[in-house]
Amino acid sequence: MGAPFLTQLGVFSSRYLEELECPAISPWRSPRPAVDYLGCIVHWTADRDIERVLKWFHRERYQAKASAHFVVDRGRIPRHDSLAVGLPAIEALPCTVVSCVPIEEAAWHATAANPWSVGIEVVNAGKLKNGLGHTRFGMLPPPRETEVQIPERSWHYSQAYHSYTFDQVMTVGRLLTEVDKEIPMRRSRVLGHSNVQKNKQDPGPDFPINALRSLVFPTEKYSSLKPHTVHEALLATLGYDLLDVSESVRIFQKMMSIDADGIVGLETRSAILARFRELFY
Fold first, then answer.
1. Is 227 exposed, middle or buried (0-12, 13-18, 19+ CB in 10 A)?
2. Listed residue (198, 213, 1) closest to 113, CA to CA
3. Beta-bridge mates of residue 96
């Protein structure tokens, strides 16, 4: 039996980061308080270049003061196989993945959610403007075939997003499965960045967060679960889990600075509707 997946990934990541002249672990991390379970926050990188993202997270001179536990590329880098020699679990991955911070520590990726979450950055340029993707380092033209048009704001307007690849989504699912083996994860806390920070929009509407959650943490109860109110339907559209509505409502309330009682009262209903309009109208 070979070494555990995360151990192999750590070896691969150290090899890759050494090539990039980066430290093996990002300096932007903190001790993680004791938790009974973890969640996961999915982000877009706002950049199409994994090496630039890794240097941003790992080189202290850039003063990024940001990091993630994992970065998932759009496919395999050209030297993936040579870096993965002797690491069969990593050789088999469809996308290159780099570990930046051990899961036992908190990465700096989602403010108040850092203590209880694993941060996964997925290489994606995010929103596009005139065929150009907004990135931390300027605007880069992604291939036209990787754009997806999502209707927004009105019936005659659509916003272009950089699309995610199937392999990226499957690789994120594999990471969640492997993390869950080390530290138990809670399904309702597998979320997008926009679910825990109201000034964020990632990973955007093209990332299938609900489908990913159901794939990694399947349950018979969920297969027949339906929204009972319009506000539950809006929460699901926003990317929250309906299996534990109270937990999802509390997460939303904390983000919106509302008393986190898990009850959808008048203030919470108004906030859900306002957030939905902000992101989709």
1. middle
2. 198
3. none
Architecture of domain 220-281: Orthogonal Bundle (1.10)
Q: How far is CA 261 from the centre of its chain?
A: 26
Closest CA to 145 of 158, 157, 128: 128
Instruction: Give every CB contact of residue 64 below 8 A, 6+ residues apart in sequence.
Output: 28, 56, 57
Cα–Cα distance, 74 to 232 (Å, whole number): 33
HEC per residue, 104-156: CEEECCCHHHHHHEEEEEECECCEEECCEEEECCEEECCCHHHEEEEECCCCC
Model confidence pLDDT, tens digit, residues 94-136: 999 999 999 999 999 999 999 999 999 999 988 877 555 554 4
Spans of all domains in the chain = 5-218, 220-281
Cis peptide before 23 (omega within 30 of 0): no
Would 5-218 and 220-281 be classified into the same CATH topology?
Answer: no
How much is the pTM? Answer: 0.90
Strand residue runs (E) in 212-257 = none
What's the whole-number average pLDDT of the chain?
88
Q: What CA dihedral angle connects 19, 100, 238 and 34, to 10 degrees?
A: 170
> Could you tell me if 156 and 195 are in contact, meaning their C-beta atoms sit under 8 angstroms apart?
no
Count CA within 13 A, CB hemisphere, residue 81.
Answer: 1
Superfamily (CATH H level) for 5-218: Peptidoglycan recognition protein-like (3.40.80.10)
Of 241, 70, 48, residue with least CA distance to 133: 48
DSSP 100: -
- Lookup: tokens for 121: 């950055």
What is the rounded distance in angstroms from the CA atom of residue 173 to the CA atom of residue 9?
Answer: 15
